[in-house]
Prior knowledge:
- Helices cover about 45% and strands about 20% of the residues.
- The protein has helices spanning about 1-15, 30-40, 55-60, 75-90; strands at about 20-25, 45-50, 70.
- The protein has a 3-stranded parallel sheet with strand order 1-2-3.
- The radius of gyration is 13 Å and the shape is globular.
- The relative contact order is 0.18.
Amino acid sequence: AEMQAFTAAANHIGGKYLNDCTLYVTLEPCPMCAAASLWVQLGEIVYGASDPKRGYTTLHANLLHPKTKVRSGILAAECSEIITSFFKKKR
C-alpha cells in the first residue's frame, strides 16, 4: 500500500521526491516499503503499531533516508486492535 501511495503522491506532485510529505500508517512499514521511502526521500513516517516480525526495524533501521523523520507508537494499542480485528474477520 505504501508503494502505491508513493507513486500516487509523486504523480500528483509532479516529481519523484516526497521530502515535504508524511506517510501515516497503522503498522510499521516492511523493509521493502522502508527502502522505497528512501528512494523517494520521504519527509516523515508516522506509524502506530510496531511489527516485531516483519517491520523494517527488525532488519535495519537505516533503510530510511537520513533526513526522514519517524514517529512511532502513535495510538499503538488502537492501531494494533484495528489490525487484529481485520485479520480475525479474514479467517
